[in-house]
Each structure stands twice: as structure tokens, then as C-alpha cells.
Amino acid sequence: AARSAARLGLTFTDLRLDHTALRAWTDSVVETLAKGVKGLLQRRGIELIRGRARFRDSRTLSIEGGDGGTIEFRNAIIATGSRINALPPGQGLPLWTSAEALRLPEVPRRLLVVGGGYIGLEMGLVYAGLGSAVTVAEFSPTLLMGADPDLVEIMFRSSEKRFAAVLLDSRVAAIERRGEGFAVEIEHQGSRTTHEFDRVLSAVGRRPATDDLGLEHTSIVLDERGHIPTNEECRSVEPQIFAIGDAAPGPMLAHKASREGKVAAEVIAGHRSAFDNRAIPAVVFTDPEIAWAGLTEREAKLSGTPVVVGRFPLSALGRARTLGRTEGLVKILSDPATKTVLGVGMVGPQASELIAEGTLAIEMGATLEDLMVTIHPHPTLSEAILEAAEAAAGAPTHIHPPRRK
């Protein structure tokens, strides 16, 4: 941000990065949050037992190591999260995962990021900002397969210059140690080339951490991806055993897990509750940020769902111009007949904050009219949602209306 401020008339000298101080700051944030959760548990009188838990049967857990012992339960919630997938060519080598990369052990001169999903792009941009020459290798023909291409294109066009290279349709065929670094053989369109890097970051996805819980001693059978099938109450086939978060089906997102945790707790406490949410927002913390909720254009095309799409470019938004951040757009998908908001997608600054309004609109069954008559403060980025709703309704104010046929 400091480097790009020159075009606004703000020039900085002696701009330096203190990696040790940055690492200490990161560690302090994590430590503070962890202590906060521990304090919340203590104040609520929750007993914390440490150890490796496995089901002995559908009513009993054995605890290995730590505090040890056996626990008989009336209800259990499985919230074991997920594990990082291993990169087969890197077996036995000291490759980074997101866990190591987040600790900022060093800033390598040349960094290869394997995987063009949200983790790979987020971490790649972090290290590019810290000074690494970052190469991204992605097996698929596009980045961020879950997001709409028009959103990804804007993000990539803006951030492409920060990467040394982005290799699509590329497979890491072999990795070997070479001195203090790595020699990596990358296959692209049938040909193989060898590149040298100081570090390799594997970001090829995650899988549920459900494979060593003793579930074979219960009636629970994992699905093909390793998730525990659940109903809207978050119950498994064993009605007293619940599963939430990455252990259960659905997107692996912390906010989805938090909602499921509340549903499971409410059901256990005897309340009527269900995970019946219509939209789970997704956010990619790249620069610019990408966020979406509800139906995407890609999903609408695949399912044959008719939609009307209204787009509003940030280049036409006053607040975006004052920030010098006009790369981006907001789009709204609506039902052609009822005008109900079906999906919201956006790319640009603060998309992670703005998507909450779109999620609420979908959750409440709002129409385009509801968004259009809601007064949005001026000048703000949130006005882009109002403008996109007007565009979807065919009555845009601050962009040219569609041509009459």
C-alpha cells in the first residue's frame, strides 16, 4: 500500500520490513486469541481433557496420552478439523505447508507455491509482498476453481505483476534436494523443465481429520471424501454423535463450523435448531479480495438455473476512486420472475466485509427492491451493492443502462 501510494501523491522513503518484529506480532496475535478461548472455557466451567481420543463404542471414548482414562458420554461432537494434503513428489522432503509458512521462518529469495487455490494465492501474495520471487504452479487450467472466472480475472490481472510466474495446467513431477534448496521438475503440455527454488510451499488442499477416530467401532461410515454424513441437526447416523466443521460435509470454512457448533449445542440442549442456512459466504484474502455467497454464475450455468445478473464496476464508484482502488466489481444474481436475490459476488477492497450484506439478503429472501430502497451511506464501498441491484433490475443510475433491443 505504501509503495502504490506514490500515484496519490504520498511518497515514502526508508521503507523497511523487520521480519523479526513481524513474526513476533503474528505470534502475539495467535497467542492472545488462544488465551482468550482458554479463558472463555474456564469462565463457563468447561472441563478440558488433553489426550488422543478414540471411540471404543458409540457411547465411550478412550483417551490415550495426556490425561488418559475413559469417558462415557450422552452426546459427543466431533470437531477434529482437517489435515493438509501431502504433495506426493515431496515425500520425505522439508517442504513448507501453510502451517510453516504462517510462522514466517524466513523470506526465501525464490519460492515455489504448488497449488493455485485460496491458500496458495493468499500465502504467495504474502511472501511476494515480503520480497520473495514467487512462482505459482497450478494443475488446473484456471486459478480458484470455486470462484466465478470474471472475479478471478480481475484479481489476477491486478496481482499478476507481483508474481515471478504463474504456471497453469502444470504438474510438479519431481522434487529433489539441491544444496540448501530444491530442484523441481514441472510438466506442462507434455514437456518437462527443471527449476530451482530456495523453498517449496505445498498448498494442494486439505482433507478431513476423521481417519483415526475409532469410528469403525460405531455405525458411522465416512463418505468418499472422508466426511462424516450428518443431517440438518448435525447428527450422524449415531443420533448421540454429532459432527461439525471440516469433519462434516460442506465447505471447509471456520464460520461454517462455528454456525454448526451452535446448532449442535442447541439440539443437545433440547432446543429446536437446524443448519438450514441458505448461503455460506466464501472469502479469498488476496489483494484485491474476492468474496461470494449463494448461487454463482458458474453454478447457475451448470444447473441450468435462469438468473438475471447485474454488475457494477468499482471504477464508477466515488469511494473506490478516492482510495485509488478501482479494480473490481460487485454483481448480483436474481430470479427473473420474483426478483429474489440468489447470489452475490464481488472483487475489490474490503470484499470480505461487504459480503455480509449480500449473505443477509440471501438469508432473508430479500428482493432487488429491498436492496434498492435501503439507504446506503455515501461515499462508501457498500454503495456498489445498491448499484448492482439497480443494474440487475434494469434501472442503473450511475452506469449506462443496457441498450434497447
Keywords for this entry:
405 residues; alpha+beta; 5-stranded antiparallel β-sheet; 4-stranded parallel β-sheet; 10 helices
Describe this entry's structure for a reader:
This protein is of the alpha+beta class. The chain is 27% helix and 24% strand. The protein has helices at 19-43, 98-102, 118-130, 149-159, 254-268, 297-303, 318-323, 351-363, 368-373, 383-392, and strands at residues 52-57, 60-64, 69-72, 76-78, 82-84, 110-114, 133-137, 165-167, 170-178, 181-188, 191-197, 199-202, 206-208, 241-243, 282-284, 289-294, 308-313, 329-334, 341-348. The strands form six sheets. Strands 15-16-19-18-17 form a five-stranded antiparallel β-sheet, sandwiched between helices. A four-stranded parallel β-sheet has the order 8-7-6-12, covered by helices on one side. A three-stranded antiparallel β-sheet has the order 1-2-3, with no helix packed on it. Strand 1 and strand 2 form a beta hairpin. The mean pLDDT is 95.
